[in-house]
Amino acid sequence: MKNLIIAAIALFTLNSFAQEKSAKKISVQTSQEIDSQNQSPEVKAKIETKKLIKQLDLSSEQREKVLDVMLKHFTLKQNPRQNVKEKTALKGKSDKAELKRTILNQNQELSQELNEELKEILSEEQYKKYQQYNLQKRKSYKKVMIKEN
Questions:
Q1: Separation of alpha carbons 81 and 36, rounded Å
Q2: pTM metric for this prediction
Q3: pLDDT tens-digit readout, 107-132
């Protein structure tokens, strides 16, 4: 009987430690996302360009063009909520859903513009690799978002 009680206590103790580790992993990932949100557009553009250089093996001319495109993209994407409020008359709390929809549409348009500009800079093979890289990035982001909720 004593052994059964000790085994049950040990099982519950180990289980609680396992849950704490997974919670810490999620909090580390979200803190990294928060840090990336607080970075300037220049830093974000340099980081993303370095990733693309590594993934796509860009030439020096392509590197400069990609950095310019990324800088433009992250500058426009810096504060979408403020940009939308300035451009539209959405000021009240009742317009919150409309504001979210407008921000989502704006982000989609910015992503499309980025993809079009990169398509002009990259070769066909590089662009296919970029699309795969982008797809993997979105999948990993979705996994993190699912774990948070």
A1: 17
A2: 0.63
A3: 899 999 999 999 999 999 999 999 99
